[in-house]
Write a structure and sequence with these properties.
Layout lengths: L1 H12 L4 H36 L6 E4 L4 E7 L3 E7 L4 E6 L3 E4 L13
Antiparallel strand pairs: 1-2, 1-5, 2-3, 3-4
Length: 114
């Protein structure tokens, strides 16, 4: 505690010595900000990876292009979705092209993971 008071007294006497302290404070603030932002980004990526890995038949999805369809086949990195019931239109695409999964409760609101 006395060392902090001693530092404060030195800083009050010599204004030139405040610059390094301010720079260190800003660097610590930026480091903490960076760590928290990376944590949030990592959590979003984990949620998205889980959504993509949990894709199964009869799951309603929205693609990055905005098409809504039902998953009819799932392979390693590729899925097939049916987008039109009347003429049985199917599209094969990569799993990363899925934007969100539409919940089964029928509300029609997509779970937007962005």
């Amino acid at each position: 505690m006395q060392t902090l008071m001693g530092m404060a007294a030195v800083l009050a006497e010599d204004p030139k010595s405040t610059a390094p302290v301010m720079i260190i404070g800003v660097l610590i603030f930026l480091a903490v900000f960076f760590l928290f932002s990376q944590r949030g980004r990592k959590r979003q990526q984990q949620d998205r990876d889980k959504m993509i890995n949990d894709l199964a038949r009869n799951t309603r999805v929205v693609t990055l292009g905005g098409m809504i369809g039902v998953v009819i086949d799932v392979k390693d990195d590729e899925i097939t979705i049916k987008i039109d019931e009347s003429n049985n239109t199917k599209i094969r695409m990569k799993k990363w092209a899925i934007r969100s999964v539409i919940p089964k409760d029928g509300s029609g609101e997509a779970d937007d993971s962005r």
